[in-house]
From TrEMBL:
Residues 153-196 form the Rhamnogalacturonase A/B/Epimerase-like pectate lyase domain. InterPro entries: Beta_helix, NosD_dom, Para_beta_helix_rpt-2, PbH1, Pectin_lyas_fold, Pectin_lyase_fold/virulence, RHGA/B-epi-like_pectate_lyase, TAT_signal. SMART domains: PbH1. It comes from the Bacteria. The lineage of its organism: Bacteria, Bacillati, Bacillota, Bacilli, Bacillales. Residues 230-342 form the Right handed beta helix domain. This is Uncharacterized protein. It holds the Pfam family Pect-lyase_RHGA_epim. Residues 363-547 form the Periplasmic copper-binding protein NosD beta helix domain.
């Protein structure tokens, strides 16, 4: 039998050579050495390299006594490595607790597995509490303190087992309360009891409490898991009225797969209440009974959480939401994945769901993915302001890709939406001053929906939004739809191969639809159901199955400078390039209409039908505009100005 030796130092030229294990312990005739550049380093087995200057400074009077070279034991010494003035003594934690006459000139090397490290006696300390990891108190009241590198502790120093069976809550909390900067969690599965009563569902008082200025660092193979329970409310990690906290690495896992209850939805992985300056990165949060990450206002105050950064995080298979936010001012979410949320509504990847007297604002989500959530990819609800969703990917969510409701001053830019087959890729409802630009919406129900519900017009009326430079194609209903909304711009979009309508104005007014390419849809641009005062200008509308531009009912339309070719592909001589039905006081000017050279051709370049009256038609080029007529007028009191070019090529002030 041999006793495990403390690391000892030997001089080799200008450097220390550190021999971690004696010859006798190795049972062989060679020594494993590590050479460190310079001559002022000591190797701590449990904590890495400690500068000799730091070591001596941390020892106070003992450090002053240990002069240069005094920590160098005689080569080959086993058991206690004697120093010139002091010594290094090998002990267990149990030994330290039984020590009655410690020496301030002795360094104590603890041998306990996974708790190894150097301790020193502090004779002036009479109050520190024994926490097993960084402070040991003997039966005589002597305090021994661990020598630590870079203010980092290991939860295993505090008796955390990580065996997937033991309740490690108290041990890990002791590590967190040790008052150092970094708390490290090595590989293993650590069971946490975070069960709370319903009254504490959004302000939990159990689970791991992270102090200010703490980096909670998990090994990539570390799992912190909720203890199996039947409660509707729990949390694994909580950051409450704290600041400057970082959580990185590893997995946070709920008890969803083993949960024994059936009700409730407040089982959280990470809970932030009034947290400030928090970073969560490279963490997997999965299988939670409620939300993977939950953010709200403080407990001590009503202040929102603020300056939150979530980067490289994966929220997977959580039951209610991947992430919820009730109150935040300043959040950045980047390079993260929110997927497979299912179980109880709303079931979204991320849901910003401000409650009474709360608000979410200054939100930025960049480069994330939202995949296969039963609800929406992102829900942004109720009075959120100043948000940017950019360069994200949304695939196969059961609801919408992005849903914004009652919000203002936001941008949805450069995202990709695929396979939202029962709903909109993007919905902007009762929102003001929102820009939707450069998005790709393919294979959804509707690509982009901008609208207003009359029940909420007193809060936000759905005005002054911009839909620009998007591509909406192969959607099963509409490319772009504006419904019940006013003073919006739909410009520069490409809407192709949508099964119903490329761009659709429904009960909408004072909107501008301009410079779009609307091709190969069922119908190109349609305005109907009481829409009025809209401008449709400078669009390219080609080869749609039915009418290119179709305006039904309403007043004060302007259709100007559009290029409409080859529409009416569904059947020959049936549809029109531009079609107005029962419109009044509208102006059709400067449009170019051609019937095209495919087998099926439009019947008319421009056709005015129904009960409309007092419309103005001038300067349109309808040479070969339709297989029947260039221009047909069945309205009353239509005024034809000079410059209309009719089917045969002549200019006329009457239809032909």
């Amino acid at each position: 039998m041999y006793r495990k030796a403390a690391p000892y130092l030997m001089r080799w030229g200008g450097s220390f050579i550190i021999d971690e294990t004696s010859k006798e312990a190795k049972g062989m005739n060679e020594e494993k050495t590590i050479i460190i550049d310079g001559n002022e380093s000591v190797l701590s087995k449990s904590g890495g390299f400690i500068s000799r200057r730091k070591l001596l400074a941390s020892l106070g009077a003992a450090g002053a006594a240990l002069t240069l070279g005094s920590l160098l034991p005689f080569k080959g010494t086993i058991g206690v490595a004697h120093a010139a003035v002091g010594s290094v003594e090998m002990v267990t934690i149990a030994d330290l607790r039984l020590t009655t006459s410690p020496s301030a000139l002795t360094i104590y090397f603890v041998l306990d597995d996974e708790k190894e490290g150097y301790f020193y006696y502090t004779p002036t300390d009479t109050s520190s509490v024994d926490n097993t990891g960084t402070v040991i108190v003997s039966s005589s009241g002597a305090r021994f303190k661990r020598i630590m590198e870079e203010n980092c502790v290991n939860v295993k120093w505090f008796n955390a087992k990580g065996d997937g069976v033991t309740d490690d809550t108290a041990a890990m909390q002791a590590a967190l309360y040790a008052g150092v900067g970094t708390v490290y969690v090595p590989e293993g599965t650590y069971i946490i009891d975070g069960v709370v009563t319903w009254a504490y569902r959004d302000k939990p008082n159990r689970g791991l409490d992270i102090p200010d200025h703490t980096h909670f660092q998990l090994s990539p193979k570390a799992v912190i898991k909720m203890i199996t329970n039947a409660s509707d409310s729990s949390t694994i990690i909580r950051i409450q009225d704290r600041s400057h906290v970082r959580i990185s690495g590893g997995t946070i896992e709920g008890d969803r797969s083993t949960h024994t209850g059936v009700g409730g939805e407040w089982g959280y992985g990470i809970c932030l209440n009034g947290a400030k300056n928090v970073t969560i990165e490279d963490v997997i949060v999965k299988n939670c009974w409620g939300d993977g990450i939950f953010i709200s206002q403080g407990i001590a105050t009503t202040a929102p959480s603020s300056n939150i950064k979530i980067m490289g995080v994966t929220c997977d298979n959580n039951r209610r939401q991947g992430m919820s936010s009730l109150a935040v001012d300043g959040i950045y979410i980047g390079g993260s994945s929110f997927r497979n949320t299912n179980g109880t509504a709303p079931q979204s990847g991320i849901d910003f769901e401000a409650e009474l007297n709360m608000e979410n604002k200054n939100i930025k989500i960049v480069g994330c993915e939202f995949i296969n959530n039963t609800g929406d990819g992102i829900q942004l609800n109720k009075s959120a302001t100043y948000f940017i969703f950019s360069s994200n990917t949304f695939v196969g969510n059961g609801g919408r890709g992005i849903s914004t409701f009652l919000n203002a001053h936001g941008s949805i830019i450069g995202n990709t939406f695929i396979g939202h087959t029962t709903n909109n890729a993007i919905m902007v409802l009762n929102c003001n001053y929102v820009t939707v630009s450069e998005n790709q919406c393919s294979g959804n129900n509707t690509g982009i929906y901008v609208g207003a519900s009359s029940s909420y017009l007193s809060i936000r009326n759905g005005d002054n939004n911009v839909i620009t430079n998007n591509t909406t194609d192969q959607n099963t209903l509409y490319g772009v739809m504006v419904a019940g909304s006013f003073n919006n711009q739909v410009t520069g979009n490409q809407c192709d191969h949508n099964s119903n309508i490329g761009i659709y104005l429904y009960e909408a007014g004072h909107n501008i639809v301009s410079n779009n390419k609307v091709n190969y849809n069922n119908s190109g641009i349609v305005s109907s159901n009481g829409s009025s005062d809209n401008i449709i200008s400078d669009n390219i509308v080609e080869f749609n199955l039915k009418n290119g531009i179709h305006v039904s009912g309403g007043t004060n339309y302007v259709a100007v400078n559009n290029y409409c070719v080859g529409n009416g592909q569904l059947s020959n001589a049936t549809y029109c390039n531009i079609y107005l039905n029962s419109c009044t006081n509208s102006s059709i000017q400067g449009n170019v209409c051609r019937r095209g050279n495919l087998t099926n051709k439009s019947a008319y370049g421009i056709s005015l039908e129904g009960t409309g009256s007092a419309n103005f038609v001038t300067n349109n080029d309808c040479y070969q505009g339709g297989s029947v007529n260039g221009i047909r007028d069945l309205h009353t009191s239509t005024v034809f100005g000079a410059g209309n070019r009719i089917n045969g090529g002549a200019f006329s002030v009457t239809p032909s």
